[in-house]
Amino acid sequence: MSDKILLLNGRVFDGVSDQVRRQDVLVIGNRIAAVGVADVGDADIRRVDLGGRLLMPGLIDGHVHICGTELPIINATSSHWSYLSAFAFRQMERRLMSGFTSLRDMGGANVGIARALREGLVTGPRLFYSGKLLSQTGGHGDARPRDNDIAVVLGNCCSGSDKFAWVVDGVSAVRRAVREELRLGAHQIKIMASGGILSPTDPLHSLQFSESEIRAAVEEATNHGTYVSAHCHPAGAIRRCAEYGVRVIEHATMLDEAAAEAMVANGTYAMPTLALLGVLMREGRQMGLDDANMEKLHLVVSRAHDSLRLLRRHNIPAGFGTDLFGKAHGNEGSEFTQRLPVDRPLDILRSATAVNADILKRSQDLGHVAPGALADLIIVEGDPLEDIAIMENPDNIALVMLDGVIVKDRGIAMPGEHLPRPKFWQASAGTGF
């Protein structure tokens, strides 16, 4: 089969531009060779007529937990790795069929899951994993219930929470944990810098980790050539993390002017995550949230859209994340519509493509339809720039191309033919495949 594919007669959203243009896109191997080309008559080129459908970059989810099997979190972290891995593999394949060609895992996925992808043992998107996140004792990543008195030491928590988190206190312990995750190939480091909705013992407004601990994590990640992301809800946590060198603020749901100004001054990105909030508002009780969890949830939800408006007003780059966990998996498409009270469909699609690629430090390869970019592309039925709700239904993703290989086709390119699996092993290890 030819490694040259000409995608004809498509309406192209390139990930950045305000305009959608009728253009052809030539793919050679795993890269986009040309955009706007006419059919050159090469007999070796395989032609696929898109029939006016929208062609755009593959979606990037900037905040996922592919091993997040269930709530309360302690139930997931104490599950056996064989089950967690099987769950992750199923989630990754499902996400790929929904148009997400890259995932940025922010706690749980590890080098073994990445190796299985790289060697083609399983099918899934490109994976950029953080490994274990870092939490202080009693912080958002410490999953022990309040009445559990089992002690935690670095990398050894009898409750099982060491699968997802390093529970660390002090600069030396932070440095060691960061270095260990970087040794294991983590693409970025995640710290828990404030209280959270689902954690059992910390107030939402608590500021977690000292300045010296946060700066130590940033120094170690920077020395390695990568960066730190921080879970932050309250404005105080956001402001101090931006000032201490954290590159990406996860959630950023309770922003104020001072925190926004600190983000602007330090070139900090935001990763809003609204999809999980919507599911928890509907089904939180059934998913195991107690009164304290629900109280924190309502406070976050009451501020989330105003925070997104503040991000936009200050022109702070905002990515696209879903943060789904447990039974909430499968609702990733709701992130598109959850943002409609604030964002235009164009802004939402940019967040899920070009902005997230920039956060990944892969803007030359991902998130764009441009010559030289990797051929991670999707074809969409309908016009999400007019009706973003189209993106909620995976059936509207008519074709998915990953690394130049068509991995999903609803009768456009190869009716009735068997689709080969993408050859992840052709890419370099440690680079998000």
Question: How is the topology of this model organized?
Answer:
Blueprint: E1 4-12, E2 21-28, E3 31-35, E4 46-49, E5 54-57, E6 59-64, H1 73-77, H2 81-97, E7 100-105, H3 111-118, E8 126-129, E9 133-135, E10 152-153, E11 156-157, E12 165-167, H4 171-183, E13 189-192, H5 211-224, E14 228-234, H6 235-243, E15 248-254, H7 257-266, E16 269-271, H8 275-283, H9 291-313, H10 334-338, H11 345-359, E17 377-380, E18 397-402, E19 405-409
Parallel strand pairs: 1-4, 1-5, 6-7, 7-8, 9-12, 13-14, 14-15, 15-16
Antiparallel strand pairs: 1-2, 2-3, 5-17, 10-11, 17-18, 18-19
Helix pairs in contact: 4-5, 6-7, 8-9
Description of the molecule:
This protein has 433 residues and is of the alpha/beta class. The longest helix has 23 residues, at 291-313. The chain is globular and about 70 Å long. α4 (171-183) runs parallel beside α5, α6 (235-243) runs parallel beside α7 (257-266) and α8 (275-283) packs antiparallel against α9. β7 (100-105), α3 and β8 (126-129) form a beta-alpha-beta unit. The strands form 5 sheets. Strands 1, 2, 3, 4, 5, 17, 18 and 19 form an 8-stranded mixed beta sheet that branches. Strands 13-14-15-16 form a 4-stranded parallel beta sheet. The chain has 11 helices and 19 strands.
Q: For the residues shown, what is the average pLDDT?
A: 91
Shape: globular
Biggest sheet, in brief? 8 strands, mixed
Strand content: 15-25%
How many strands? 19
Helix/sheet category: alpha/beta
Low-confidence stretches: 153-161, 423-433
- Rg to the nearest angstrom? 21 Å
Output the helix-strand order. Answer: EEEEEEHHEHEEEEEHEHEHEHEHHHHEEE
Number of helices: 11
Query: How far apart are the termini?
Result: 23 Å
Helix content: 25-40%
